């Protein structure tokens, strides 16, 4: 076992879902993500709609400072 690694404990997906008040599918997805990537950190945000206020950012910042 690696130093700092958590010990492997077998727990049912249903029990975990009930404990954390999430769906069994959510737990299953996290288990699969951990199995595939060895990590369950959230992915960085990407995409999305660009701000429509980009051009007015400085003016808005000045108004907030007042």
Largest sheet: none
Q: H/E order of the elements?
A: HHH
The gyration radius over C-alpha positions equals 21 Å
How many E strands? 0
What does this protein structure show overall?
The protein is mostly helical and 66 residues long. Helix content is 47%, strand content 0%. The model has no long low-confidence stretch (mean pLDDT 83).
Keywords:
0% strand; single chain; elongated; 66 residues; mainly alpha
Give a topology summary.
Layout: H1 13-20, H2 24-37, H3 57-65
Helix pairs in contact: 1-2
What's the short story on this structure?
The protein has helices at 13-20, 24-37, 57-65. It is mainly alpha-helical and 66 residues long.
């Amino acid at each position: 076992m690696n130093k700092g690694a958590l010990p492997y404990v077998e727990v049912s997906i249903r029990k975990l879902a009930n404990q954390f008040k999430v769906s069994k599918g959510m737990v299953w997805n996290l288990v699969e993500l951990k199995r595939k990537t060895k990590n369950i950190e959230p992915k960085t945000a990407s995409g999305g709609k660009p701000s429509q206020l980009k051009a007015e950012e400085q003016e808005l910042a000045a108004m907030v400072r007042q």
